[in-house]
Structures are given as structure tokens and as C-alpha cells.
Amino acid sequence: MLTTCARQLLIDDGAIAEACRAGLGEVPPAAAADESGARALLTWLVSRIARRRLDAETFRGGYGARSPATVIAERYVHFTAPCADLSGVAALLLARAGIETTLVLGGISRAFRPVKFQCGLELELPGENGSLTWVVGFGISRSFFYAGRFEPTVRRPWVFRRRPERLDLGSPFLSHFCEGGREELSRVVPGYDLERDLRDHVARSGRFSFLLARRRARKEAQGPAVPPVAPPPNWEAA
Questions:
Q1: Are 33 and 42 in contact (CB under 8 A)?
Q2: Do 110 and 69 meet the contact criterion of CB atoms below 8 Å apart?
Q3: 2 Cβ partners below 8 Å, 6+ apart?
Q4: Is the pTM of this model over 0.90?
Q5: Per residue of the chain (238 residues), what is the pLDDT tens digit?
Q6: φ/ψ of residue 145, rounded to 5
Q7: What are the backbone angles phi and psi of residue 114, rounded to the nearest 5°?
Q8: Is 16 helix (H, G, I), strand (E, B) or coil?
Q9: Strand pairing partners for 131?
Q10: Comparing C-alpha atoms, which of 93, 89, 94 is closest to residue 49?
């Protein structure tokens, strides 16, 4: 059943609930359209989707191309590239709760490294003096949720936003920015080369890199600062 949420955004409430029940073991919790509700949904999500080290062929096939339905059913993301997969699922859960959600795509440019992309969300939540924008991001070792916006920087010179009329389980995150998804991302992000990006990720996906990333995530979770989204990511054995 199609439901209108968050400023006329169409979602299939029943399909999302059923996909989560089948893949993640339960329906997402009821949540208010405010900071605490968004945090609760993000915490619920990151605790159920594991970081995993994939073989090169599996990673190449799914990088930037997995639909939210696939991510929910398989219950994992590749540890070096969680942002597109988790942003796609999170957008559905947050919109389902009536939270106004904007999809964000950033272009990353660093010296001697291939141009890359970054996926995230901006949420409009109630504040003391009207609505306040919050950032949702998914990194290798932790997930982020804080008041602010994705702004262009020296290392992230390009920031693009989309508010599609409809979000569904079958559409990968990148498909909302270019019809061909990852295959046509170079039309949006200047200098992006999919094959170079894939090679770089594969080169950084060894077992030792996985163990270091997992160790860093666990160390950050035990630090003095409270993680922006708790609990820490669920890591599977390398």
C-alpha cells in the first residue's frame, strides 16, 4: 500500500515492513518524526546490518548498485563502502516515520587518489526555533548523526541533493541522481571513473585492512565521546 509521508513523498509502508520482517527479523520500531525518533531508527538499522569483507567479484558486482531490498535481505555491507547501501535503507525507514528526508551525493577529490563519491542524508527535524537540518552519514568505522548540512569543502568540492517524489525498495541510492546509476555517475561527479574506484576499493579490502577497521571501530566505541549513533557497527569475521 502506497503511503504519503514527509511532504508528499510516496513510499510503500507495507512492503518496507514486510521486507524488514523477512530480512532483519522484525518490523522497524514506531518512531516520532523528531531527533529521538530518527536516532532510534538509525540505531536499529546499524545494529542489524553487518560490515563484511567480500571477495573482489562479489564486491564489484554490488558496489553502488544494490537496492534497499537486497541490502535488507542480505543483511550486510562491504566494510570499505557502506554509505550508498545504508543511506538507501535509512531513507526508507526515516521517510516511513514521516521525517522529511533529502538524499545527498558528494564528490570526493584528493591528491593522488581516484575521484570518489559519498552518500548521505539530510533530515528536517523540529528545533527550538523551527525546523533544523541534521546530517546522516555512514563511515567505515562509525555512523554519524548531527545537526548541520553537507557543505562543499576542499576535499568534497561537489554536493548534490535530491528529493524524489517516491522512494522504493527496488531503486539503488545512486539511481536517484542519474538514470544509469553507478555506470553514469561520471555525468554527475566530474572526473569520476568507476573502474578506478573499484580497483582502489579492492586494493584496500584485504583481511588485514578489515581487522584494522574493526579494531578502530571497537576502540572508538569505548572512547570518552558518545558515538553519534550507537551501538557500534556489527562486524563479521574476515
A1: no
A2: no
A3: 10, 11, 12, 13
A4: yes
A5: 555 554 557 889 999 999 999 999 999 999 999 999 999 999 999 999 999 999 999 999 999 999 999 999 999 999 999 999 999 999 999 999 999 999 999 999 998 889 999 999 999 999 888 889 999 999 998 899 999 999 999 999 999 999 999 999 999 999 999 999 999 999 999 999 999 999 999 999 999 999 999 998 888 777 655 556 655 667 776 5
A6: -150, 110
A7: -65, 150
A8: helix
A9: 126
A10: 89
| CA–CA gap between residue 235 and residue 238 (Å, rounded) | 9
How many CA within 13 A on the CB side of residue 218? 10
Question: For the chain, how big is the Rg over CA atoms in Å?
Answer: 17
Helices and strands of the chain, counted as H and E runs:
7, 10
180 burial via Cβ count (<10 Å: 0-12, 13-18, 19+): exposed
- As given in the structure block, the three cell numbers for residue 94 are 526515516
Pairing mode of beta strands 100-108, 116-127 = antiparallel
Judge contact between 228 and 142, C-beta under 8 A.
yes
Buried/exposed code over 84-118 (b: 16+ C-beta within 10 A; e: otherwise): bbbbbbbbbbbbbbbbbbbbbbbbbbeeeebbbbb
Ordered by start, the domain boundaries in the chain are 2-235
Amino acid at 152: P
